Amino acid sequence: MASRAAGTYPPVPEPLAHPVVDTHTHLDICTGVRLPLGAGEPEPEVRPDEDEEFPSLDFFFDTAQSAGVQRIVQIGCDLPAARWTTELVTQQSQQGRQWMLGGVALHPNEAPRLAERGMLDDALTEIESLVASTDRMRVVGETGLDYFRTGEDGVAEQQRAFRAHIEMAKRTGKALQIHDREAHADVLRILREEGAPEVTIFHCYSGDEAMARECADAGYYMSFAGNLTFKNADELRRAAAAAPLDRLLTETDAPFLTPHPHRGKPGGPYLAAVTARKLAEVRGMSEEDLCAAVWKNAETALGSWD
In the CATH scheme, what is the code of domain 15-38+54-302? Predict the structure, then answer.
């Protein structure tokens, strides 16, 4: 494998005029303690990667702070990553580092795999136990539907798991964070049928302008990632311009979706600064005003970090 040492990452951007929050990142993958979802058989494992060099947690903490990304939501989206996330968030809080919150769920692509092995219900029970284990866990996510990687034979189990996560978020009083890939109509339909939690966030929002207006009418948050900067993302930028300011969030989905002009390289939470600047440009706002708004939105949606 090619090295992912710190020198291979995009440069740290200039600090933002006002701090922002990366509301969705995968430090387990960034630091190499876990394979990307689906890369392992039969299930991804949390383990040090002996074949590839990865930066440390401190690299990602320090670069984020330098860029003005002062708060992070770490997401674990399979059982090993969910356990690791819960431990990390708890440890950081105990050490007085209050700028990290967490979220856990079963990624929609995990649901059919677990169901096939008769493990889905037990896995959902464990996820609920983890998300309820500490106040630092504020998110049930990422859950939802992904029709890009899962065929028709997996749709029913994806939808069953999504409904279970919706109910879990309502029972535990946590925010719901949604993965929606090529499944817009069904995601919105199931949210209507089940009744969405009070705080519902479309992670890495991928819909069009019309969907943004529908989400706004329902009170959902829309979180934008580095793909907002991609050259072919005109429809996404129109959606970002149409969404109400008080429904906007920023994220990275690191190490994925690294913003232009560094697309294809591994990313980190610090690159939320690049997306925030692009979001300000798209909306015709000053950087400071846009960042202040999304900072406030993150605290409204997820509660105080302190």
Answer: 3.20.20.140
